[in-house]
Amino acid sequence: MAVQNNGIREHWYDGILDALKIYIPGNSTFRTMRARNARTGTLFILPFIIGFLVFMCRPLVESFIFSFNDVTLVPGQGYAQSFVGINNFKHALLVDPEYNEYLLEEVGQMIINTIATLVISFVVAVILNQDFKGRTLCRAIFFLPVILSSGVLPGIEHQNEFYDMMSGMAEAMEGSSGVNISEALQQLLSVSGVGNQVFEVVFTMIDSIYDIVMASGIQIIVFLSGLQSISPSLYEAADVEGCSAWESFWKITFPMVSPLLLVNCIYTIIDFFMKNDNKVMELIYQVTYQDFKFGISAAMSWMYFGIALAFIGISSFIITKAVKSYE
Amino acid sequence: MSKNNTVFIGKNKSFWDRNRRSEGYLLQRRTKQICISIVRALLMFGLCFMIIQPMLIRFSTAFMEEKDLYDSTIVLVPRHLTTENFQHVFNLTGFPTSMVNTLWISLVVSVLQVISCTFVAYGFARFEFPLKKFWFACVVLLIIVPPTTIQTSLYMSFANFDIFGIFKALTGGPINLRTSMLPYALMSLTCMGLKNGLYIYMLRQYFKNVPDSLEEAARVDGCSTLRTFTQIMLPDAMPTIASCFLFSFVWQWTDLFYSRNFLSTYKLYSVELSSIVSRMSRYFSADASVAVVVPVGRQQQLISIGVLICCIPLIILYCFTQKTFVQSLAMTGSKE
User: Fold this and answer.
1) What does pTM read for this prediction?
2) CATH architecture type of domain B84-334
């Protein structure tokens, strides 16, 4: 009965033993209130358990096996596979001309985008938390991208050369006075002797601000709700003690909201990795359904998933460390 | 911060009078406030405009004739108004049918998903059962696994569906379930649809914050668990459930991944839209066997009309339900 006392488990398998007692009749635990409640609870999540085992666990294991096999379709019988070791991974990384490049590109883009999304959504949330006219309208508009940039829509928008053409025409109309802002800034900075490499990152951010704002609808709302849960009396107290707005931002607002940083960071990374206009996703889809190389596509997507997991792990490690230091 | 903390010194004193009394502090403060609000207004306007502008451009180009597209003197207002473009897009995407299909499939799927997710979320929030942490870790896994990882295997298993060889024994071969909606309906019913992990997470957060005493009171009065759930918990949870439903509906509406993989026999708008370019060259040639090259500008115009048609129902929906969307999401995020 070590399990019930204080809820401390003595062995790792105690949980499983406990589970057996709860689900199989014929012992003293089975008829207790606790066991009955546990059974009801299990009944509630039963759909999930079934779904997870059938539609998630099995395919996951299967595709993991696929990634080490050469899979071919056999008409009428399904598919045949033969073990090839890590050749699929080798093929994806060394032979496929695009996978490597796309992967690096997406990861780099992801790091920049995640940081930029977090910063922008935080700033916007702070602004939206202030009192001004048209705040409700602004909120509605900032949340609109959640709808407008889902599914097919961003992918199609991306290939929109038409808008480039339009803006090109507008520039041509204005003659030589049409200056690209980021280019001009770049020139200015390089003249003043600042390292180009560092600023390139910033310029990519500026250039992709549209994508970033379109991807930060949910993050803004999450930050905003965090900001609204801060009690106003804290600010009042700080004000009375002679704290400036700037100080109270860093001493009150930021530490109070920083736990949400982790949620948003993870959400942003996942969102970015799963976007439809992601080049790697497109490549995987193409390899699967146009080339019918199931083994290679499985290897590709497993590597992709591994990288995503690694990034989520790293970022949550960093953020929990950083947030802890505030406490 | 925006609170006016100035000491009250008299109703009829002018601003400058009060400023003199405060030794210039009032003026300084007021200037600061005005500056901040101007910067804020500019920033907000800029960002909002950036979000809306593509839609506006789409809207204006939608009514242009083809020659207007290449006329550099026309920027926003079309000179030759026409609705003929819409007709082309309707034909290209199989408009009424594909839209109706999308509508009812999105409805069915999101209702199924929300029902099952609500049950599961309640189970996670309110019951102690063995391996709870493990199962919840599975929910998190569900959120972070990219669907591409499992698509091959799912595709295969649905194309050759069989449970422990039962069908093989009965009909002499596995059955292809990809031709019906059944696989996806099953997946929705078992919380494996699009972003369902997220809905479970949201609803669980909500249920966790409802005070225990409500259920305890019900139990003392002899209410069964299921009845407590349906008659006490559900009515209060409606706003959150509604927002999950809306998310589910909207994301299903525009979804490409699951539609392409599991619902390929239905003409869905999102799928039709994604392949609109490849069908254009056939459509615009005089006889169907010869392909013509459609100019890029024209292509993009038609695509943007397609996107517009896809978005308009969603935007209308959003206008009416904006509060539900934002509020319950805000509630979920705050109690991390």
Assistant:
1) 0.80
2) Orthogonal Bundle (1.10)
